[in-house]
Amino acid sequence: MHRIGDGGSLWVWRLLILLQFVSGILSWGKEGHFATCRIAEEYLTEDAKAAVKELLPSSAGGDLASVCSWPDEIRHSYRWRWSGPLHYVDTPDFKCNYEYCRDCHDLGGNKDRCVTGAIYNYTKQLMDFNHGCYSTVEYNLTEALMFLSHFVGDVHQPLHVGFTGDEGGNTIIVHWYGRKTNLHHVWDNMIIDSALKMFYQSDLNNMIEAIQSNITDVWFNDVSSWRNCAANQTACPDPYASESINLACKFAYKDVTPGSTLKNDYFRSRLPIVEQRLAQGGVRLAATLNRIFASGPKVTTT
Ligand code: ADE
Ligand code: ZN
Ligand code: ZN
């Protein structure tokens, strides 16, 4: 046993701080993913609801939102390290546009290993299942559903489509009010956390309800265009990534330099962007799952 203040507990504290930092560099934080998936659940067709229910792990208790952060929870373990680059896609420094062929690769240059590539890949796996080409040996479709649901959230976080040189804002140290953090973490967590405290009585359900009512009134006329996907395509992550890098340039990186203190002005002007991206992520995840499971799984009988 280590006593508080001795060398052992200092290491435990260092480890905890490191883990907090590391978990922060991944994606929308837990709240963002929960909100996106909770919003998506509202818009699922009966066919999609049935397929999702069939594929969810029993630990989910039938609730997609409860497993939407799973890819962040496992990605540090040795077994899942390959999945790290699938959470984001970065553009060359200061390029405010996104191109699949130029940008979708990992640090080793392996093509398709990025968030948009992953969305195409997991959509295809789930489509095969829906068309009766289900092979348990080849794919684990429970994992495919959880990865797809998570990555549709991630591609809507503007700094998950950021610049290569600063790792989507991860290496830009800033202060959020009094607290030292980095720009990426501000967009994954801090804006949402501050909004919860300031406007939503620290209750995520209140924030989700506010976003849902914006979807049905303020953004009502835009929602059908959010769902648009090129004819004969099931998943459309490329336009979402283009929107994200555009928002990263116009709002996330704008007026920020290393060492900046970000507070009220930044918070007030960026929160509406965060809320709209959570809404779009949810509506589009549902639209994608609805297209994948359009006619329900085809059961092959012999
Ligand atoms: N690592 C490198 N770039 C990243 C990004 N845009 N988002 C999250 N992690 C990253
Ligand atoms: Zn992620
Ligand atoms: Zn992140």
Describe this protein's structure.
It is built from twelve helices and three strands. Residues 1-25 have low confidence and may be disordered. The protein has a three-stranded mixed β-sheet. It is globular. It has a single domain (28-292), classed as P1 Nuclease. The chain has helices spanning 7-24, 30-42, 46-55, 70-74, 100-103, 115-130, 141-156, 183-199, 204-216, 223-227, 237-252, 264-292, and strands at 173-176, 179-182, 261-262. It has 302 residues and is mostly helical. Helix 2 crosses helix 9 and helix 8 (183-199) crosses helix 12. Strand 1 (173-176) and strand 2 (179-182) form a beta hairpin. Helix content is 54%, strand content 3%. One zinc ion binds next to helix 4 and helix 7.
Layout of helices and strands:
Elements: H1 7-24, H2 30-42, H3 46-55, H4 70-74, H5 100-103, H6 115-130, H7 141-156, E1 173-176, E2 179-182, H8 183-199, H9 204-216, H10 223-227, H11 237-252, E3 261-262, H12 264-292
Parallel strand pairs: 1-3
Antiparallel strand pairs: 1-2
